[in-house]
Amino acid sequence: MKTAFPRRHLGMGRLILVRATWDPEASVWVAESPDLPGLVTEADSLNALEAKLPDLVRDLIEDDGGSAEEIEIPIEVVASFSLRIRARAPAA
């Protein structure tokens, strides 16, 4: 299924923001983009995610008919994770 991504955005070199969040239960990075509907994937590492994203983004934005024009599309990945630790407070 192709996702409509307006060409006017592509022509302006619009940044695609990808948010990657660590899922501790599945031990994977889950990536989604508010800028590109349909972009949802997971990977074992940020390096693996980086390797996956170009083809995934390309598949989501290219028309079935295709265009001879190639453009550069900037992608920014923002990764986050949370953790909790227990520590003893220093004596007063």
Main beta sheet strand tally, sense and closure: 4 strands, mixed
Q: How many structural domains does the protein architecture include?
A: 1
Task: Specify Rg, calculated over alpha carbons.
Answer: 18 Å
Do you know the CATH architecture? 2-Layer Sandwich
Strand runs, count: 4
State the low-pLDDT regions, or none.
none
Q: Any idea what the CATH superfamily is called?
A: TTHA1013-like
Strand content: 25-35%
* Helical amount: 10-25%
Order of helices and strands: HEEEHE
CATH top level label: Alpha Beta
Mean pLDDT: 86
Description:
The chain is of the alpha+beta class. It has one domain: TTHA1013/TTHA0281-like. It has two helices and four strands; from the N terminus they run H-E-E-E-H-E. The chain has a four-stranded mixed sheet with strand order 3-2-1-4, covered by helices on one side. It is elongated. The mean pLDDT is 86.
Helix-strand layout with pairing:
Elements lengths: L6 H5 L4 E8 L4 E5 L7 E4 L2 H16 L13 E6 L12
Parallel strand pairs: 1-4
Antiparallel strand pairs: 1-2, 2-3
